[in-house]
Amino acid sequence: GALTISIFLKPPGVIPPGGSTTICCSCQRDNGNFVLYKNGHRLPTPELHGSRAEFSISNATQGDTGAYSCHYVDGGTVLARSETLDVIVQEFHLPKPVLSVLPGHEVAAGAYVIFRCTIAHSSAGCFLYLEGQFEALHLLSKDRDDFNISPVRKDNEGRYSCQCFTKSASFKWSAVSNTLDLVVR
């Protein structure tokens, strides 16, 4: 099969000015190098060798906003390109949401699990993130602020968080909630 690269942010979500995040890239092979691109231009980051690479953004500014991708190269040949990951740097204007999970942090496989992201704002929508995933798992709107996983499987296990926003003249963002680990037995 074709070589694929996964790309994701750790921690996921919109970053505040001055904040930090890590762009993580991984590939099934480990004999090449990762090169980071932003808006189609190669960044002057070191080439990282192996099957995983992490590129840090610290003290983020508006200038760090952009479309990032990883290329996996061997010699001068590009073997694979990741999807494009949008990195957004924005001030947080909303209160920090609270993420909860029912029936609890540890569940048996096959159980019915509900994630709830609660924020003190009447018209906010929220994203549910699972660390290691390329995109937000789900967009939760105010009329439906629960995300149900049923039946839960072992691959639903992981570190979850949520982040909320309002769509007025411009997007206003909250901070990312505290993380919550789901364990599936």
Name a few traits of the molecule:
185 residues; mainly beta; Immunoglobulin-like; 2 domains; 7-stranded mixed sheet; 6-stranded antiparallel sheet; Ig-like_Receptors_ImmuneReg; IGSF1 protein
Describe this structure in words.
InterPro entries: Ig-like_dom_sf, Ig-like_fold, Ig-like_Receptors_ImmuneReg, Ig_sub. Keywords: Disulfide bond, Glycoprotein, Immunoglobulin domain, Repeat, Signal. This is IGSF1 protein. The protein is an all-beta fold and about 180 residues long. It has two domains: about 80 residues, Immunoglobulin-like; about 90 residues, Sandwich (Immunoglobulin-like). It contains no helices and 19 strands. Strands 10, 12, 14, 15, 17, 18 and 19 form a seven-stranded mixed sheet that branches. Strands 3, 4, 5, 7, 8 and 9 form a six-stranded antiparallel sheet that branches. Strands 1-2-6 form a three-stranded antiparallel sheet, with no helix packed on it. It is flat and about 50 Å long.
Summary?
This protein is an all-beta fold and 185 residues long. It is built from no helices and 19 strands.
Please describe the topology of this protein.
Layout: E1 5-10, E2 21-27, E3 33-38, E4 41-42, E5 48-49, E6 52-57, E7 66-74, E8 77-81, E9 85-87, E10 92-94, E11 98-102, E12 106-107, E13 113-118, E14 125-130, E15 138-140, E16 146-149, E17 158-167, E18 171-176, E19 180-184
Parallel strand pairs: 10-18, 12-19
Antiparallel strand pairs: 1-2, 2-6, 3-4, 3-5, 3-7, 7-8, 7-9, 11-13, 13-16, 14-15, 14-17, 17-18, 17-19
Keywords: Disulfide bond, Glycoprotein, Immunoglobulin domain, Repeat, Signal
Protein name: IGSF1 protein
Domain Immunoglobulin: 10-90, 102-185
